[in-house]
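Lab notebook page, bench 4
Experiment: in silico fold of construct C2
Operator: M.H.
Input chain length: 459 residues
Purpose: comparison with the prior construct
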Amino acid sequence: MSTMYRVTNPATGEVAEEFATATDSEILAALDRSATAFTEWSQTSVADRAAILVRVSEIYAERAEELAKVIQMEMGKAVPEGKGEVGLSSAIYRYFADNAEAFMADEPLRGPDDGTALIRRKPVGSLLGIMPWNFPYYQVARFAAPNLALGNTILLKHAPQCPRSAQIMEEIFIEAGLPEGAYINIYASNEQVADLILPDPRNHGVSLTGSERAGAAVAAEAGKNLKKVVLELGGSDPYILLDTADVSKSANTFFKTRMGNTGQACNSPKRMIVMDDVYDEFLTSITEAAKKFTPETPDAEGSRLSPLSSIAAADRFIEQVQDTVKDGATLLAGGKRYDGGGAYVQPVVLADVEKGMRGYYEELFGPAVIVYKVSSEEEAVEMANDTPFGLGAAVFSNDLERAERVGSQIDSGMVFLNAPEGTREYLPFGGVKRSGVGRELGPLAMDEFVNKQMVFTKN
């Protein structure tokens, strides 16, 4: 039987391993196992569920080197960055273990003296997670940790290029003591998701992190079957530099942030909006940084410019850049593939990008820096909001009140002031507009797939 689940080394383009796509009967059996496990898992005490998540956290920390090398092979992440991702995943499981009881505590309601009322949080059932390739462990952790803490059970469909890490995550849960069926890795096809899982009454919701196209398709199927969704989709996050005492340092901070995971992050700052009095110096500094940034093999210590996730991803990235330049943008660095094969691309710096160009509205999912010049706060805000996306934003100024004033006007789910965008286990993650619906991480994560049951007792 042919399969779409395979490990292809993006540094070489060679297929290293293949995994069989699940049959329809295997998918139905997984649904049954997940629903059956829910009966036991949902009745397990919160403290006992938390203890298992603590052990999951410990296993991630213990196996960090091994886990990092797995995703190096699957999607090209440099080993140091892979270790960082594993560490963040470990912290997420620990965070929800430590806070599950507080987040699930009954919430009293105030009212007249005719009775007492409260909100009680209860799990809803078996959930489907559809996860992307760019952060194989972290994306799963931010969905799985809060929902397992709640008492929900999970079917996890990972990206087709991450089958080995997907299998290992299931093994870690089993090793940590999770009951059989509470977390099941499935090598499902898109058709099986639409035709078998979402229509099945044993499924109670779906969380997807991925493209707009995938999110729209899954949301349509979920809506047809009256299933709740959480969607974390694309981003074209603005990074606004209002003023700075050190232009070169500001440029290097932005460049380092943008190049994380080789630019393949939904909340990566993709549009640098710079005030005109520092624009020229900033553009020169960031162009110099890009030209010095050369590729390394993903296993090199300290390497950050790894290959993109696949040859196809590299081809699309270069096509987007070339089309933007053909339409009149100025290419200051990069724009080509590196010799020697694999999915390596040169870091790109673009200026003079205008409306109507691909680079203005499309998300460039790779090592691309686009720099815009503005002359006022109002122009900066207008440009920041001129996007179909609304995931995150960052605003920098020596005057915190100025940064706060501008940041409060940005249409996004997250705003960082005088700090590069980043992820922490306690900060809610999610966006508005075409960046999706719902929140993950932090205290809001356990308010998504939950029955907020009202209980009233008459006096």
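Observations: The mean pLDDT is 94. The CA atoms of residues 122 and 451 lie 5 Å apart.
Next step: discuss at group meeting.
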